Each structure stands twice: as structure tokens, then as C-alpha cells.
Amino acid sequence: xxxxxxxxxxxxxxxxxxxxHVMPRHIDVWLPSDFSPSxxxxxxxxxxxxxxFDGSLNWTKKAWRADVAVANLTK
Length: 75
Fold this sequence. Notes:
A hairpin with a 7-residue loop joins strand 1 (10-17) and strand 2 (25-31). By secondary structure, the chain is α+β, with helices and mostly antiparallel strands. It has one helix spanning 66-73; strands at residues 10-17, 25-31. 11% of the residues lie in helices and 20% in strands. Strands 1-2 form a two-stranded antiparallel ribbon.
């Protein structure tokens, strides 16, 4: 599957993330535009298949646009 398109920041994918509770799956991680590995960040976990960032990746063609919401809340 392709990476979701985001308006702000970027997506990094962890492929085939293993869990003893479910079959391995891809995990998409949104990082803010000013992300730096030397800084610490608060974390927000969200789970919803394809609706979080990019509506073109799901059957409803709608998205929560979480990247935009979080970017606006953290300005």
C-alpha cells in the first residue's frame, strides 16, 4: 500500500510491525514538519485503518486529516 499523503509534516512507515495479538501490519507514523530526533515529543496514538490522513485511500473518500488538526493545535 502507498503512504498516505499529508498536508503538513511527513509519514514514516514501520512495515510488518509484529504483535502477539494480531497479524503483522504496517504502522504509519506522522512526524511534524520540525521533527528532530534529538527532541522529545508527546505521542498521540490513533487507530482507524485508512481514515486518519488521506481520504483517497479509503472507500468513503473522507479523512479525519489528523495531520492538519495536530499541526494547528501545536502552533
